[in-house]
Design a protein that fits this description.
single chain; 218 residues; alpha/beta; Rossmann fold
Amino acid sequence: MNRFLIVDDHPLFREALEGAVRLAYADADILQATSIDGAIDMIAAHRDLDLVLLDLSLPGTTGFSGLLRVRAAYPKLPVLVVSGHEDASVVHEALSLGIAGYVPKSTTRKELAFAIQEALKGSVYTPKTYAPPKGAERGRAGDNDIMTRLRDLSPQQLLVLDMIRTGLQNKQIAHELGIAETTVKAHVSEILRKLKVLSRTQAVVEVSKVDFATLRKS
């Protein structure tokens, strides 16, 4: 029996995703989460998951931060992104993170079921209308380097970086995460080292080169 995890904060769309999964695998075991933290906990409790269907725009996440946390914590677990964002540059960035495919939410249930089947076969599904952005192979080397450096961060470091991006200071981050401020400082030092920058401001500038803004919830 195949086991899936649906991660989306909208009940109606979780229902739609479940319908697509059942169309592909009628007897599937389907788990659900409404946040990245919930997803991480669910994955930890069910290490036999076959596929995660993940929305990019979840509460408490910005841009690719949620996806990066899942990929960093469980790099071998296939993730199929199901998102309302259809811009080619967004699809391109998501695919560069090693996902199992990218499905727009406007996709029909039949096509979504096909994408799920392709992901389980080990193929990478892309929208039929997708074409890599012009110059993606040549001109995005800098962006790809940033994405590579981001992948080197641990899940906790990604969470701290996301909080830094929102303007939180070490003391506030420590309070939010329930950890010592010295631990936060250690995380920040490692973040700066792995991103190859000298300050928090430079870290935010580097991360801003990735197109997070287009993924903010409206």
